[in-house]
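Form P-L/3: holo structure prediction, ligand phosphoric acid mono(formamide)ester.
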Amino acid sequence: QRHLISAADLTRDDAIRILDTAEEMSRVADRPIKKLPTLRGRTIVNLFFEDSTRTRISFEAAEKRLSADVINFSAKGSSVSKGESLKDTAQTLEAMGVDAVVIRHGASGAPYRLANSGWIDAAVVNAGDGTHQHPTQALLDAFTMRRRLVGRDAGLGQDLDGRRITIVGDILHSRVARSNVDLLHTLGAEVTLVAPPTLLPVGIESWPCEISYDLDATLPKSDAVMMLRVQRERMNAAFFPTEREYSRRYGLDGERMARMPEHSIVMHPGPMVRGMEITAEVADSDRCTAIEQVANGVSIRMAVLYLLLGGAVFETKNVPDTLQ
Ligand code: CP
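OUTPUT (holo model):
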């Protein structure tokens, strides 16, 4: 099957092939005409059932740079609001001759279901499903880390062996954290999660990473620190930590950033809530790669679409918990 559903499905070789291809793709952005003819005549639909700024625009930019025909579908304003199912929506798109479907959905497992249902023949790319996975985010994060911590040219063919990555915040609701832990482990990095105990998922002990409740102790040992937004929209208000208390214990401000090694970087997948998990001083500092991550996302998505529509196979071996 030609799909990308989970970062856990990628072997080390798959991941490095995508990262190296993305380095090639990134050169297109430096040209006066930012386009390759590679996917001319192919149609890709961006099927977004959940809000997005970065991922939606980034996929669209990637598809257009590869000369694909692009159809943007947002559940808001579509017949989904009249009760139409994912199956009927997908088959409607299939009837229009779509080669790939990029899907974001609030339900964990929706892209897996679409890819394995037999409803459509198109390649499926997961652009974020519930609290489950966001594989292209993990890939663009790994790409950013490799460039910054190993080097742009020196990084080609390389993984992140021994690099120490700290992910801080709302791990419980974060598909970004889950995808990053999976991919970073595959790439040889050592991952530590820092979060309040109430924002860690059940079964976290089986994840391939360390857990800490002490951000200040973890920062001096980190090559990259990834800050996550607290996802109020997926949370019962009664369990929501106060902003003041959360920021005091788990927020990154200038004073805390000064404890990090000089070479280390601050990452954020966005959207950022300034004043909550990250101060404006840190978000706007040279060490914060949030905007660089967005730019790198276009190269990663070009690489994924180029490889998948060129026939690459990333085995879908990890079934989301919700569908087991
Ligand atoms: N990082 C990320 O997925 O951002 P969006 O929700 O804006 O796409």
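COMMENT: The chain has a mean pLDDT of 92.
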